[in-house]
Specification:
Blueprint: E1 7-10, E2 18-21, H1 27-34, H2 67-81, H3 85-88, E3 102-103, H4 105-119, H5 122-126, H6 129-136, H7 138-153, E4 159-160, H8 162-187, H9 189-202, H10 212-216, H11 226-238, E5 242-246, E6 260-263
Parallel strand pairs: 3-4
Antiparallel strand pairs: 1-2, 5-6
Helix pairs in contact: 1-8, 4-8, 6-8, 7-8, 8-9, 9-11
Length: 269
């Protein structure tokens, strides 16, 4: 739905499905447009498998693909594609269609021990409404992940095991800090812009001296917002990455001049 999916898995037949894996190198650029404090329509919260990428330098890799891992993945896809869902699930006297898969007694106790503390945690109560809404969907996400893992690991079992649910809860534990980073980028874009500036700095692309507007004028990806770049430069100065060559400020009549920054010699050591 956003941009061009990098990978797609399709199945055929009457119950065709498609899964798209979105690859956004600068996700906060989309996030800032999809969500704001004035427009919390719940769309962003539906991206429940959000993962925030760490920007790293280029590294050339020349090695053979893991063919055994590829074979295992393809075997799994083929097995799931041929799976008879009706035979896997359970039905009660009401004749549920499609059938359902219950949690085992041990899995249910595990879910209950996680669910109540999670829903009453300060993280949900204190966070901004968008982040709270995102976390509020995690109990449903646990069920979806548990079912998917159940199908992948032990579809012949009539119940979702404690081990399967533990894997699903592990996924939620992994995804939570990534979601927090995504929403933090909305509220504090200067921290993300500062990270992009550090990448340019390490690549030795920054001028010897510069003002924030001179950086934004270069139209580098993620560095076009002049105010965000200005705050990011100040942030990097306060943390010792940049030095202030000229403090700027008001000089006679007119608008105050912006500070002039340079890269700290210690930052490049």
């Amino acid at each position: 739905m956003v941009g061009q999916p990098s990978k797609a898995i399709r199945s055929t037949g009457s119950h065709a499905a498609k899964f798209s894996f979105l690859n956004l190198r600068y996700p906060f650029l989309y996030v800032r447009k999809a969500y704001s404090g004035e427009r919390n329509d719940g769309f962003l919260q539906r991206f429940q498998l959000l993962v925030w990428p760490d920007l790293t330098g280029f590294s050339f890799v020349d090695q053979y693909p893991d063919s055994k891992a590829k074979e295992r993945v393809m075997e799994l896809f083929n097995r799931v594609n041929e799976l008879d869902g009706g035979a896997m699930g359970q039905r009660d006297e009401l004749g549920d269609n499609p059938p359902y898969v219950r949690l085992s007694s041990a899995a249910y106790e595990l879910f209950h021990s996680w669910y109540e503390p999670f829903m009453s945690s300060e993280r949900i109560k204190v966070q901004n409404s968008a982040m709270a809404s995102h976390l509020g969907k995690y109990p449903g996400l646990v069920g979806k992940l548990a079912l998917g893992i159940h199908v992948a690991d032990e579809p012949e079992a009539g119940e979702v095991s404690e081990r399967t649910l533990l894997k699903a809860l592990g996924w939620v534990e992994y995804l939570t800090p990534h979601a927090e980073r995504v929403y933090h980028a909305v509220e504090h874009p200067e921290t993300v812009v500062a990270e992009l500036l550090l990448v340019r700095m390490r690549n030795k692309e920054l001028p010897t001296s510069f003002k924030a507007w001179e950086i934004s004028r270069k139209q580098w990806k993620g560095l076009t917002d002049r105010e965000a770049v200005k705050r990011a430069c100040r942030l990097l100065f306060e943390f010792g990455w940049f030095v202030e060559l000229d403090a700027g400020g008001r000089r006679g009549i007119g608008r105050p001049a912006d500070p002039v920054y340079g890269v700290s010699p210690r930052a490049m050591q």
